[in-house]
Amino acid sequence: MDKQQIKQGNWKTIFGTILTIWIVATIIAGSITELKQAVSEKIVIIPITGPLSISENDAGILEPRTATTENILDNIKKARSDSSVKAIIFEINSPGGTVVASKEIADAVKNLKKPNIALIREVGASGAYWVASASDKIVASPMSITGSIGVIGSYLEFSKLFEKYGITYQRLTSGELKDVGSPYKELTEKEKDYLQKKLDIIHENFIDEVSENRNMDKEKVKQIADGSFYLGVEAKDLGLVDYLGDREFAVNLTKQMINKTDVEVITYKRKVTLFEQLTKLSSYYIGKGIGETLLSFNLEKEIKLNA
Amino acid sequence: MKEVYKLLKFNYAPLWKRIFAYIIDISLLNLIIIVPFKSIINVYKDPKTILLSKTNALDISIALLAIIGLILIYFIYTEYKTKQTLGKLLFGIKVMPDNATLKQIFIRNITKPFGILLIFDTLYILKTGNQRYTEIISKTWISNK
Question: What distance separates the 2 farthest-apart alpha carbons in chain A?
C-alpha cells in the first residue's frame, strides 16, 4: 500500500468514526430524554380552549376553534393511564358550548382518580364552568369571566324575510312538533313552551351538578344561576371558585396537593395535522360549509342547546 | 547536542501543531457529542436543581458517562487504527510508535475527557519538552509524519 492509499484509508476511518459517534450520541441523548419523560413525575396541563363541542365538525369555518370532547377525553384518558402523571390542571379558556359536550367532559373530570384542578384564565363560563366545577379545586384569574349558569336555545328565524321575497315554507310533518325550531316558521305558543321546558330541565340539571360538585346548597346555586356572569373576585365571594391566581399559582397549588416539589409540568397540545390545516383553509371547505347551511336543514343540528 | 539528537531520533511534532490539532478535535467533539446532550446537561448549570431532583441526577450521570465514553472511543479508536485523529491528520502529525498497542493508546488518552486531569497531564510537557505524563507512561509520542 502506498502513502496515498494509507492517507485515504485514514480519512475514511476517521470520518466513519466521527459519523458513528455522532449517531450513537444522538441516539443515547434521545433515549435519555424519552426515558426522562417516561419516568419523571409529571403534572399535566390539559387546555380547554374555545367553545365546547362534540366534534370539530360542529363548528363553522368562521367560528373560533372548538375544544372537542373527542380531543379532551383523549387527553384525559392519556393522563389517567400514564402512571407518571400525578396531577392534572385543566386550563380553561372557554365560553361554554353544547350541553352534551359540557356534560361529557365534566363527567370525565369528575371520574378522574387523580388530583386535578381547574384554572380559569380569561373566561370559564356556562358549560366551561360546569366542567370546572367537576374538578377538585378551582383557581380563577381575579378578572376572569365565570359563572353564567344557564342554558340558551335561541336561534335565528327567517320567516318574515322569506315572506318579503315571496318564499313560503310548505309545512309537511307527520308529528305536530316534528319541525319545532325550524328557522322558516314562527314558533307557536305550544312549541315555545315545549322548548322552554327542555331548557328548564337542562338548567335544573346544571344547577344540580354545580351544587353537587361544589358542595353548595342547591338553593344558593339557584339564586346565582340566572345566567349572569361573575368576575373571578365576585365568583370567589359567591363560592363558585376556591382561589384567585394565575398559572404559576395553580401549578404550585397542585404541587402542594400532591405533596411533591420535584415534578415536571407538561402541556398536552392539540395535534393539528398538515392535512387538517390545509383543508381548513381551502375554499372547498368554505363552500361546503356555506352550501350545507343553506341547503340542508337538520333540526337536531340546528337547535343547539348551549350551556 | 543530546537534545538535537533526541529531536532527530523521535522527530517530535512541534507543540503548536499539537495544540491546534487538539483544538480541532475538541471543537469537533463538541459538535458531534456535546450538542446532542446539551438539553440534558444544561441542568448542570444549576447544581441546586440536580440536588433536588433524583431524575436529573440520573440523567446527567448517564449523559456524562456517555460523553466520556464517546470521547475516549474517538481518540482511542482513531489513534489505534490510523495513529491519527482528524486534527492530527490535518496538521500532518501522528502517534508513535507505529506498532503502539491498544493498551498504550488507551493509557495516553485516558485524561482526554477530563479537563483538569488533562491540564496536569499536559503541564508535564514543560518538564519534558515533548511528552505529556500519560505519553511517558505509555511510551508513546507525537511525531511529524
Answer: 104
Helix/strand/coil for A269: coil
Which residues contact residue A6 at a Cβ distance below 8 angstroms, ignoring those fewer than 6 apart?
A: none
- Return the exposure string of B68-96: e unless at least 16 CB atoms fall within 10 Å of the residue's CB, then b: ebbbebbbbbbbbebbbbbbbbebebbbb
* CATH (domain of A210): 3.90.226.10
A26 in a structural domain:
no
ipTM reported for the complex, 2 dp: 0.85
Stretch (H or E) spanning A100: helix A99-110
- How is residue A15 written as a grid cell? 470520518
Q: What is the pLDDT of residues B26-74, one digit of tens each?
A: 999 999 998 898 877 765 555 544 444 555 677 788 888 999 999 999 9
Mean pLDDT by 10 residues, chain A (307 residues): 71 92 92 75 92 71 67 92 91 93 95 95 95 97 94 86 88 87 88 93 95 95 93 96 96 94 82 54 41 42 61
Total tally of structural domains belonging to chain A: 1
Three-point CA angle A8, A12, A13, nearest 5°? 115
**Secondary structure of residue A158 in the 3-state scheme:** coil
Q: Which three cell numbers stand for residue B142?
A: 507525537
Domain of A196 in residue numbering reads as: 41-302
- d(CA A126, CA A137) in angstroms, rounded, equals 17
Cell of A219: 338553593
Give A28's contacts in chain B (Cβ within 8 Å): 36-37, 62-63, 66
B127 Cα to chain A: minimum distance (Å) = 32
pTM listed for this prediction: 0.58
DSSP secondary structure letters along A280-301: HHSHHHHHHHHHHHHH---HHH
Answer yes or no: is A125 within a domain. Answer: yes
CB B29, CB B67: distance < 8 Å: no
Instruction: Return the C-alpha torsion angle A90, A91, A97, A98, nearest 10.
Output: -20
Cβ(A101)–Cβ(A127) under 8 Å? yes
- Own/partner pairs, A231-234, CB within 8 angstroms, 24+ separation: A231/A142, A231/A143, A231/A144, A231/A145, A231/A146, A232/A120, A232/A140, A232/A141, A232/A142, A232/A143, A232/A144, A232/A146, A233/A142, A233/A143
Domain membership flag for residue A1: no
Confirm if B107 and B32 have CB atoms less than 8 A apart.
Answer: no
By the 8 A CB rule, do A98 and A54 touch? Answer: yes
Of A18, A29, A39, the CB nearest to B36: A29
Nearest CA in chain A to B49: A262
B84/chain A closest Cα distance in angstroms:
8
